[in-house]
Amino acid sequence: MQTEDSVATFERSLQAMAPYMSKIVSRGHDAFGEAWRAEFEAMLQTMFSGNGESLRNAASGYLKFSLDAMRLQKQFEKDRTYQFTSYDTARAAVYDNAEYMNGLYLPGILISHFLWPHHYRQSRFFRKEFLPRVQNAGNIRFCDVGVGTGFYSHFLLSEAPHAMGDGFDISPHSLDFAARMMAAAGFSGRWTPHKRDIVADTPGEQWPFLLCVEVLEHLEDPLTFLKTLRKMLQNGGSGFVTAAITAPNEDHIYLYNNCEEVIAQLHAAGFSIDTYFEDAAYSPRKDEPVPRLGAFIVR
Q1: Which pLDDT score, from 0 to 100, does residue 85 have?
Q2: How many other β-carbons are positioned within 10 Å of the β-carbon of residue 28?
Q3: What is the pLDDT of residue 32?
Q4: What pTM, to 2 d.p., does this model score?
Q5: Is the dihedral of CA 243, 247, 250, 255 positive or negative?
Q6: How far apart are CA 266 and CA 262, in angstroms?
Q7: Secondary structure of the chain as H, E, C letters
Q8: Among 76, 147, 208, 218, which one is most buried in terms of CB atoms within 10 A?
Q9: Each residue of 259-271: pLDDT tens digit?
Q10: Above 80 in pLDDT, residue 50?
Q11: pLDDT of residue 1
Q12: How confident is the model at residue 120, as a pLDDT?
């Protein structure tokens, strides 16, 4: 059946490249059920058109992304620091690097929303706690700052048919990838990409809803960035802001050791927190640092 074609093709490709990952798709299905598989299928169809070669390339990108994350995590367990401390260094190595972004980073992150359980649980938190606020609002406009793959913009546009969005990022490769996703889903007329550093060139406009998913850890000074986000959110508006915690990646600069450190910065920037979600990638052994995420609904 067509509903299984893309997931099955992706799974076979990943198994051929990395037999030790042969159970990762079936584990996702066992944990989250048919709804998870249907969402994963829809994303693969949208972004990779169910095309065998594209799906094999996606599997290759995800594999490289995962191996890179594992390598960096092992190093982090030893020295408890991130490899880069300079935003300019990370930008040159990652955001402006077309081969790295398109061959590893973007497909890897996109697929991790389904194959990394804590990432998928974060999207369920978004669906349960944030999405109804948008669906019930009369003025359905939002901005997405640091769009990455465009996953959360796409999610919101899919579930809120009258929503209109603006996406901001400093990487042309992220914006191109996200724009392709919106075009494939038929959302191009409802979502506008902007290549812009919002701290250096802050928009004069404000939005009633704001998304900012896993950007804070990419910055040397996340507090200044959060204060800029606060300027972009209307009074009474709602934001969905997340951060990676003790989770090294090629471009992670600012080390959060726990959710409390993120909460303190959100409050210092002028936000109040309605609710939040915290999750770990896996159960730690003894005092082992484990990649975690924190997702916050702010006002």
Answers
A1: 86
A2: 20
A3: 98
A4: 0.95
A5: positive
A6: 6
A7: CHHHHHHHHHHHHHHHHCHHHCCHHHHHHHHHHHHHHHHHHHHHHHHHCCCHHHHHHHHHHHHHHHHHHHHHHHHHHHHCCCCCCCHHHHHHHHHCCHHHHHHHHHHHHHHHHHHCHHHHHHHHHHHHHHHHHHHCCCCCEEEEECCCCCHHHHHHHHHCCCCEEEEEECCHHHHHHHHHHHHHHCCHHHEEEEECCCCCCCCCCCEEEEEECCCHHHCCCHHHHHHHHHHHEEEEEEEEEEEEECCCCCCCCCCCCCHHHHHHHHHHCCCCEEEEEEEECCCCCCCCCCCEEEEEEEC
A8: 147
A9: 999 999 999 999 9
A10: no
A11: 41
A12: 98
Token code pair at residue 53: 């070669």
pLDDT at 273: 98
Confidence at 227, pLDDT banded by 50, 70, 90 = very high
